């Protein structure tokens, strides 16, 4: 079967795959930024002493973690028009991905901060620093380093999750592969190209994570 | 409008129930088959036989690095080209079992590797065979460490099972999709769906947090 | 300078500080000792507001410690040295010491660094400016921690079991720094088991057990002829090491 692949048509449809590949990258990158913003916000809220604020953040995180992304996507896709909000599908998709990933990102940020020993807060408080000075100078610099690896993991998840946008008619890598199947009757070639596309991104991100680990765990490094 | 819609949704009760049933069924098959297969794969992955570890590693990597949706499409649309025709439930069950096995194998492999080397040395020094070391010392400890991760994996699987709606299988997500075709209130329909998933997943999440705290 | 008046603290049902009355004058060196669980750490942590109490009053340098608006200002005048050092691991010794003067006292960078170097030399670490905490021994880390507190030019230095986490051979280097500080007239409260230190420089020894101050006396009196039976018991255990 592998030898029967129609290489010629695959070559012709390369622009479609390029567009799909770039679209996947763009969607994932945009959602990653969105997730960071939402994650920082949700994490800050979850650390507040005010019960209402903290409770809202916890409710949001629990709701996201206990329901599938696809249901959340459909919720927004079918639900927003009812509220009178009309947006291009790709925006709805990025919004859904950001909201979903934001909950997990907030947990990553939270464990980074909580992982810092209480003694660091006490020592910096004892010399008269304000809360924001403590966070800015002592806690966050230490907390950020262990967050990088899990955040790259989130990026990998986002890339895979972006495939769901194909179900709401957004052109990205999965949809490009499907198109080859439905319009050119070459499902095998289509899926093969799609799989290769995702694996390129996956191994690229894994390499980034490995390089980061190697650079930061080297002796004598800060 | 809303009260009418609520009444209309209640007429979909059988559809919702069937959807819930399919979601639970396909997820359970996935975690049971995938769990067992993953356990075996994990032992192979952690083994000292280099080629075995590498092959399993590459296999699980491929499935952990590509979207579940794409894997489902391959099983449902591509396998028929090779002569294997599957209905949507079987395709869903196979895809989910496979992905569960791949994730579980990594969890199992790290659990095994996490048992301190010193214990194996002590065991070997008292004459235990490799097989006995695994059975008596490594696996009992590794299994204890894995339990919270495995509960987490089940939750992930239930959520991943929602992709089977894309090949027409009437699971909980698909029933929401069906409902919204008749009752054009996406917020209402998918809130109900969300509650359904929440009811399954939240207790599991809560449980795994409790286990981790111990 | 520091005045505890009828201070009481409960941790849930646990009465961890019972009717504490204690006055520490300017330039005094007070050693607080007692078995574990006696409340001595809690006591010293109240002085810079790391712990709060339910009853009584605590006046530090003329200000009530319970006055939240004055807490930060007060902390600038109080140095606190922790048992676990609590150095900032992502910064060199120089930066650790200069951080607070730079950001809290708002000194210009050059001055903060110059002061930092001076303090590190004062504690005998003039060759370790650029070392990271994980490159220093326990004794060296604790000396950096002392320099860090001293760099703020505090009026009072508080030490919470500064040598308890150190290997025996490193205890002396830290105690020497503390002895020197005492001789220079610094007001100090030191929670410690190091009785040699107490004998050398303490003006008074405060013995605590189960949340109460049971005996306060000059070191020679305390060590040779303690009045309280629990103090006697404690001393016999400590001194027969």
Describe the structure.
The complex is a heterotrimer of chains A (222), B (214) and C (241). Chain A is mostly helical and 222 residues long. Chain A has nine helices and no strands. Chain A is flat and about 70 Å long. The termini of chain A are far apart. Chain B is mainly α and 214 residues long. Chain B contains nine helices and no strands. In chain B, α2 runs antiparallel to α8 (172-182). Chain B is elongated and about 75 Å long. Chain C has 241 residues and is an alpha/beta fold. Classes of the chains: A mainly alpha (222), B mainly alpha (214), C alpha/beta (241). Chains in contact: A-B, A-C. The A-C interface holds A 117, 119-120, 122-130, 133, 137-138, 141-142, 222 and C 48, 50, 72-76, 78-80, 82, 84, 86-90, 99-100, 103-104, 132, 145, 148-149, 152.
What topology, given as strand order, has the largest sheet of chain C? 6-7-8-3-9-10
How many β-strands of chain B, per DSSP? 0
Please outline the major beta sheet of chain C: 6 strands, mixed
**Overall geometry of chain B:** elongated
Unreliable runs of chain B: none
Mean pLDDT of chain B comes to 86
**How do the SSEs of chain C run, as a string of H and E?**
EEEHEEHEHHHEHEHEEHH
Distance between the terminal alpha carbons of chain B, to the nearest Å? 49 Å
Q: How many E-type strands of chain C?
A: 10
Give helix % range of chain C.
Answer: 25-40%
Radius of gyration of chain B over all CA atoms, rounded: 21 Å
Structural class of chain B: mainly alpha
> Can you tell me the residue ranges of chain C where pLDDT is under 50 for at least 5 consecutive residues?
none
Greatest interface by residues involved: A-B, 42 and 42 residues
* Tally of individual helices of chain B: 9
How many strands, what sense, and barrel or not for the largest sheet of chain B?
Answer: none
Q: Per DSSP, what share of the residues of chain C sits in E-state strands of 2 or more residues? A: 15-25%
Chart the SSEs and their pairings.
The complex is a heterotrimer of chains A (222), B (214) and C (241).
Chain A: H1 7-12, H2 14-46, H3 51-65, H4 69-79, H5 89-114, H6 118-126, H7 131-161, H8 173-184, H9 187-216
Chain B: H1 2-11, H2 13-45, H3 50-65, H4 68-78, H5 88-113, H6 117-125, H7 130-160, H8 172-182, H9 186-213
Chain C: E1 2-11, E2 14-24, E3 29-33, H1 40-47, E4 55-60, E5 63-64, H2 71-76, E6 78-81, H3 93-103, H4 109-122, H5 138-150, E7 156-160, H6 168-183, E8 187-191, H7 195-201, E9 204-209, E10 212-217, H8 219-224, H9 229-239
Helix pairs in contact in C: 3-4, 3-5, 4-5, 5-6
């Amino acid at each position: 079967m592998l030898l029967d692949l129609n290489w010629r048509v695959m070559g012709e449809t390369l622009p479609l795959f390029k567009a799909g590949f770039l679209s996947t990258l763009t969607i994932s990158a945009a959602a990653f930024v969105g997730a960071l913003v939402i994650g920082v916000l949700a994490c800050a809220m979850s650390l507040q002493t005010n019960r209402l604020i903290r409770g809202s953040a916890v409710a949001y995180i629990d709701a996201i973690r206990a329901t599938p992304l696809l249901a959340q996507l459909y919720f927004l896709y079918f639900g927003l028009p009812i509220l009178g909000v009309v947006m291009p599908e790709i925006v709805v998709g990025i919004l859904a991905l950001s909201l979903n990933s934001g909950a997990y990102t907030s947990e990553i940020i939270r464990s980074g901060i909580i992982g810092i020993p209480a003694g660091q807060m006490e020592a910096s408080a004892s010399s008269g620093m304000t809360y924001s000075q403590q966070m800015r100078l002592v806690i966050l610099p230490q907390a950020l380093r262990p967050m990088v690896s899990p955040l790259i993991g989130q990026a990998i998840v986002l890339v895979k999750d972006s495939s769901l946008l194909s179900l709401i008619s957004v052109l990205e890598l999965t949809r490009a592969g499907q198109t080859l199947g439905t319009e050119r009757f070459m499902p095998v070639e289509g899926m093969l190209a799609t799989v290769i596309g995702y694996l390129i991104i996956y191994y690229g991100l894994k390499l980034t994570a490995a390089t980061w680990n190697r650079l930061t765990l080297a002796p004598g490094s800060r | 409008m809303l009260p009418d819609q609520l009444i209309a949704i209640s007429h979909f009760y059988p559809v919702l129930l069937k959807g819930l049933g399919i979601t639970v069924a396909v997820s359970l098959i996935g975690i049971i088959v995938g769990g067992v297969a993953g356990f075996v794969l994990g032992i192979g992955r952690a083994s000292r036989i280099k080629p075995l570890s590498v092959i399993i590693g590459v296999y699980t990597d491929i499935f952990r690095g590509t979207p579940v949706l794409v894997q489902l499409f391959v099983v449902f649309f591509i396998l028929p080209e090779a002569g294997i025709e599957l209905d949507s439930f079987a395709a869903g069950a196979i895809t989910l079992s496979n992905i569960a096995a791949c994730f579980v194998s990594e969890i199992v492999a790290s659990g095994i590797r996490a048992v301190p080397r010193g214990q194996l040395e002590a065991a070997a020094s008292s004459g235990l065979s490799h097989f006995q070391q695994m059975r008596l010392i490594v696996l009992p400890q590794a299994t204890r460490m894995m339990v919270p991760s495995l509960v987490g994996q089940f939750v992930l699987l239930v959520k991943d099972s929602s992709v089977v709606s894309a090949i027409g299988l009437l699971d909980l997500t698909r029933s929401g999709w069906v409902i919204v075709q008749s009752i054009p209130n996406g917020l209402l329909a998918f809130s109900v769906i969300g509650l359904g998933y929440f009811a399954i997943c939240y207790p599991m999440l809560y449980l795994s947090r409790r286990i981790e705290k111990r | 300078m520091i005045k505890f008046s009828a201070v009481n603290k409960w941790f849930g049902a646990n009465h961890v500080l019972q009717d504490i009355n204690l006055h520490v004058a300017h330039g005094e060196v007070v050693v607080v000792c007692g078995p574990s669980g006696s409340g001595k750490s809690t006591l010293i942590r109240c002085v810079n507001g790391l712990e709060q109490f339910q009853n009584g009053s605590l006046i530090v340098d003329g200000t009530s410690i319970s006055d939240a608006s004055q807490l930060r200002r007060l902390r600038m005048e109080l140095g606190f040295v922790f048992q676990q050092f609590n150095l900032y691991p992502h910064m060199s010794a120089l930066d650790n010491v200069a951080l607070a003067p730079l950001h809290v006292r708002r000194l210009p960078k050059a001055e903060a660094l110059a002061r930092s170097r001076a303090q590190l030399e004062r504690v005998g670490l003039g060759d370790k400016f650029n070392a990271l905490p994980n490159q220093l021994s326990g004794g060296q880390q604790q000396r950096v921690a002392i320099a860090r507190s001293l760099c703020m030019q505090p009026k009072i230095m508080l030490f919470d079991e500064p040598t308890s986490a150190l290997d025996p051979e490193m205890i002396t280097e830290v105690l020497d720094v503390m002895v020197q500080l005492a001789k220079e007239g610094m007001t100090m409260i030191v929670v410690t088991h190091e009785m040699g230190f107490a004998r050398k420089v303490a003006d008074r020894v405060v013995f605590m057990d189960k949340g109460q101050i049971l005996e306060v006396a000059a070191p020679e009196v305390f060590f040779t002829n303690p009045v309280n039976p629990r103090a006697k018991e404690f001393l016999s255990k400590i001194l027969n090491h």
